[in-house]
Write a structure and sequence with these properties.
The protein is α+β, with helices and mostly antiparallel strands. It is built from seven helices and twelve strands. Helix 3 crosses helix 6. The N and C termini lie far apart (about 45 Å). The structure holds biotin.
Length: about 250
């Protein structure tokens, strides 16, 4: 990935044939803060993970799957906001390749025309001397196999469709996303989520629409009224405004 190296010599990139899950690998063995950004990309994951214990399916040559580690000093703004930062970074990077109609689904799915193009899993690794490390895992559908495409009811889409077949190379995508993540993580570390909130809300797929939030023990319905300064979702319900933290909940349109 020569062009990435020239742009950002402090990225350390491992691109392996196979891995259980790039998130698991970096969570189990999180590189210490040496001032560089460690990245693990895999051609194949035997057990890719999604949010809320779900599985993440990817296809050799048809997906880009990687995780990167970002260190934040103690006292950094609420880590919950990082999920939104990651989604925004991916959306902004993809926009540069000409993808139109990108939207964000709280906390961190990237959609095109209401269908999922990218899944993101942010996990926090604590216990570091100087603060916390966030492992940001990103899976992008580049070319879904034809049978998956035919079952398009599943609500997934791919970059081939979004760009009319003209899919950028995986190293080019990786480089663009890492550069954007670096820019937004720096903004987040210094200014917190408020500095990125407008950009996020402009792409909110469900702004002012009815949604249901469900967790293991809760289900709430209301109107999606945006996000607050910590990246929590604001839900306008019959009984007033509720503030929802990303944790273990998911959002569905009603
Ligand atoms: C979701 O949509 O629930 C999140 C999916 C995240 C998938 C990526 S692929 C790279 C990284 N490794 C994993 O096991 N998961 C993330």
């Amino acid at each position: 990935i020569a062009h990435l190296g020239a742009q950002a010599p402090h990225f350390v990139i491992d691109w392996v044939e196979e891995c259980v899950s790039t998130n698991t690998a970096l969570m189990e063995n999180t590189p210490a803060d040496d001032g560089r950004v460690h990245v693990l990309a895999a051609e194949r994951q035997s057990a890719g993970r999604g949010r809320r214990g779900r599985q993440w399916q990817s296809w050799p040559d048809g997906s880009l799957t990687f995780s990167s580690v970002w260190h934040f000093a103690r006292g950094t703004p609420a880590p919950a906001g990082l999920s939104l930062v990651a989604g925004l970074a991916v959306a902004q990077a993809l926009e540069r390749f000409g993808v139109v109609g990108l939207q964000l689904k709280w906390p961190n799915d990237v959609l095109v025309n209401g269908e999922k193009l990218v899944g993101i899993l942010v996990e926090l690794s604590t216990g570091h001397a100087r603060g916390l490390a966030a492992v940001i895992g990103i899976g992008i559908n580049l070319r879904l196999p034809p049978d998956v495409r035919i079952e398009a009811q599943t609500g997934v889409t791919d970059l081939a469709r979004a760009l009319d077949g003209d899919v950028p190379s995986r190293p080019a995508l990786l480089a663009a996303i890492l550069a954007e993540l670096e820019r937004l993580c720096a903004t987040y570390a210094s200014g917190g989520f408020p500095a990125l909130k407008d950009a996020w809300e402009q792409r909110n797929a469900f702004a002012e629409l009815p949604v249901r939030i469900s967790g293991d023990h809760t289900a709430l319905e209301g109107i999606c009224a945006g996000v607050d300064d910590d990246g929590a979702l604001l839900l306008r319900t019959d009984t007033g405004m509720q503030r929802i933290l990303a944790g273990d909940v998911s959002l569905r349109p009603l």
